[in-house]
Amino acid sequence: MSRGVRESISNHFSSSKMITIAMFLVLFSSHDLLSFSEAQLRFGFYSETCPSAESIVRDVVQQAVTKDPGNAAVLLRLQFHDCFVEGCDGSILIKHEGNNDERFAPGNAGVGGFDVIDNAKSELERLCRGVVSCADIVALAARDAVVAAKGPFYEVPTGRRDGQTSDKSNAANLPDVEDSISILKSKFREKGLSDKDLVLLSAGAHTIGTTACFFIMSRLDAQDSMINPEFFQVLRSKCPRGGDVNVRIPLDWESQFVFDDQIFRNIRDGKGVIKSDSVLYQDNDMKNIIESYLASNESSKANFAADFAEAMAKMGAIGVKTGVQGEIRRVCNATN
After folding, report:
1. Which residue positions hold the site described Transition state stabilizer (predicted)?
2. Which ranges constitute the DSSP H helices of the chain?
3. Residue 82 counted as an annotated binding residue
């Protein structure tokens, strides 16, 4: 995102068993807006056809994060950007000649982790040819990346199949760092996600990772009043006017490689790095959600780890292809 995870956060994480139960309720509750095909996802989908599928992905991800801790956030972000365009179908992985694919859309600038997914796919094809989809690898890799960053383990239902189209024009409506709170809410609701999911999957996911100066230059040049004055000087020193816009800075200045709730303190204290994080605290409903993760009384404090896992399960079911839909790609960057 390295620093040891705070003891209080570690104690606050739910057991994997309880999170598994929560995932089941999210996926199969009659109150969820899941289609029949989405409900066909299930835990242990590859238990008979490729029993080592999840362990293979986990090992590849662990190696990647050990080599570069920043890969944890990269893989988490990859699933978000995949699911928000054409559903969670691995379409963001496709790369044809001409740069007209989804991955080249402006809203996907800086998205990476493709090599990690390709490595996992190569190993899986060696052992279980034509069985494990690239879309499932993306979902599993995101979970394993969170765990590698000292975040919660949660069960991931699998059974997604891979999309067969990829067009950057389909990615024109991705959430953007310059979006207002009303636009952000609208974009998440269009995907069947709640305001709470917005806080968790947008700001919460920024507990790890970096951004480029390019994405904050406009708010620095405008001297955005949402930024703490002292923190403004820190950001300006890293991203000076007329400086290199490709310089990377942490999204969570306190613990960029550790999955914890520090990002919410940062937003509350005017230390949100990107505008789309800062605007959340300007909305009363969003502010209350953020404050729920910072309550001083442990008995009333919301469980960020469990709630994040639940939100990831909901996002991971957006527009999935199952059954005979789509295909199982032989390589992740090209359709069969």
Report:
1. 77
2. 7-12, 16-28, 36-39, 53-67, 71-83, 114-127, 134-148, 181-189, 195-198, 217-221, 229-238, 262-268, 275-278, 284-292, 304-315
3. yes
The pTM for the full model equals 0.88
Q: What is the pLDDT of residues 48-58, one digit of tens each?
A: 999 999 999 99
- 87 annotated binding-site participant: yes
The residues with which 250 forms a beta bridge, in sequence order, are 210
Residue 31 known to be catalytic: no
User: CA 91, 86, 76 angle in degrees (round to 5)?
Assistant: 65
Beta-carbon neighbour count of residue 158 at 10 Å? 24
Residue in the structure block whose two tokens are 């000292």: 150
Question: Does 91 count as an annotated binding residue?
Answer: yes
Contact 152, 305 (CB under 8 A): yes
Q: Tokens 């505008």 belong to which residue?
A: 275
**Nearest CA among 152, 79, 81, 18 for reference residue 316:** 79
